[in-house]
Amino acid sequence: MPKKVDHEARRQEISGALWRIASTRGLDGASLRDVAAEAGISLGRLQHYFRTKDEMLAFALRRINQLAGDRIRASIEAAGAEPSPRPVLRACLAGMLPLDAKSRIGTLVGVAYFARAVHDEQLRAEARDGIPVLRAFFADQLRLAAERGELAPSRATEDEAMLLISLVDGLSTYILLDVHGPQQALELLDLHLANLFGPPADGEKGAAGDQ
Amino acid sequence: MPKKVDHEARRQEISGALWRIASTRGLDGASLRDVAAEAGISLGRLQHYFRTKDEMLAFALRRINQLAGDRIRASIEAAGAEPSPRPVLRACLAGMLPLDAKSRIGTLVGVAYFARAVHDEQLRAEARDGIPVLRAFFADQLRLAAERGELAPSRATEDEAMLLISLVDGLSTYILLDVHGPQQALELLDLHLANLFGPPADGEKGAAGDQ
């Protein structure tokens, strides 16, 4: 199916153009025409793939989440055959922070998407849908840690998982506003994890890809 | 100085129009002309007060922060003559969440401002400037709590204060995305405070304006 592959490749190219705009001047006020120009194609051709800015943003965000997921999985695999829950959690949470150029672009597209999603139920549903899955996964890791005696059982809850997700969102905000740098944000995340689990064992912190 | 008062009143009116747009269709793509139309004045007249969208956003955000500050102070004063640090902290943090229609509009303007600030150093500086002051105030409250024996001294730090600020930012995000409701967000905040301080004393939680 060579034609389908070409369409996908073209969508990725357009998405790349969107990312470049997101990482420089931002997407507020950026039109489909602007993205077409950045991608070096006509507006008509772009609209063959994405009819609206929202459709394009949704595609770009899905692609970014997929890439972030790949990064996080690689980071967990690098931690060894059977990583324990704490480094898995840390790898996931660190993977959600804008710590380098790539993850920063992802976060910037996320910000643009979020600014529109708060006024659009369909975009909001898409942004929201991944969260219960993530929260359940984090809660599973917390329960696993409690079973292994690495966490007080009373802390192995969905609510503690949601605190982790919320905290990382806020830490990201203040990286983008230059309140703290990526390294400081990571240290704040580690402080929260140390409050939750206790001080890290030797080498545990670095095992899942210390930045 | 009647003339000056009029100018200020006009700025507030324009700001009100901006808030109405922010709370309905959002500010992404909203032009100065749109705001002028909503305020029922000409574009030229609006530009007499605000030359750019960014100037207008900065004014609206300052005004919103001022109103939020007033709300929080009222809530602290309602807690009694000498409120202890924990209810003061809770009142401040709850006051930063979009729990009702007014604070929700404030948060929505904040989102629009943030989406532009990530690409503009001047807007970013303005958004960022209040944070160290807030962090220092929260850290002072934590130290006061430690002195009173209500908090482990090791937790009375600027970093713990920054965790509180970051957490509230993330909790707000997920209210706006309908991941959780205002009441659930408040319960998550209370969970974090209980993890920090221990379970609340009878009536303490509600003293600073339980929602």
Describe the structure.
Two copies of one chain form a homodimer. By secondary structure, the first copy, chain A, is mainly alpha-helical. Chain A has two domains: 1-51, Arc Repressor Mutant, subunit A; 61-207, Tetracycline Repressor, domain 2. Chain A contains ten helices and no strands. In chain A, helix 4 (53-77) runs antiparallel to helix 5 (85-95). Residues 206-211 of chain A have low confidence and may be disordered. At the A-B interface, helix 6, helix 7, helix 8 and helix 9 of A face helix 6, helix 7, helix 8 and helix 9 of B.
List keywords for this structure.
homodimer; 211 residues; mainly alpha; Arc Repressor Mutant, subunit A; Tetracycline Repressor, domain 2; 2 domains; 10 helices; 74% helix; elongated; disordered C terminus; TetR/AcrR family transcriptional regulator (chains A, B); transcription regulation (chains A, B); Homeodomain-like_sf (chains A, B)
CATH A-level architecture of the largest domain in chain A: Orthogonal Bundle
Strand % of chain A is: under 5%
What level of helicity do the residues of chain A show? over 70%
Query: Which term fits the overall shape of chain A?
Result: elongated
Multimerization status: homodimer
CATH topology of the largest domain in chain A: Tetracycline Repressor, domain 2
CATH superfamily of the largest domain in chain A, called what? Tetracycline Repressor, domain 2
Strand elements of chain A, count: 0
Q: Uncertain runs of chain A with pLDDT below 50, 5 residues or more?
A: 206-211
Gap from first CA to last CA of chain A: 41 Å
Category from helices, strands and their pairing of chain A: mainly alpha
What is the average of the pLDDT values of chain A?
88
Domain HTH tetR-type (chains A, B): 8-68
Protein name (chains A, B): TetR/AcrR family transcriptional regulator
Keywords (chains A, B): DNA-binding, Repressor, Transcription, Transcription regulation
InterPro entries (chains A, B): BetI_C (IPR039538), Homeodomain-like_sf (IPR009057), HTH_TetR (IPR001647), Tet_transcr_reg_TetR-rel_C_sf (IPR036271)
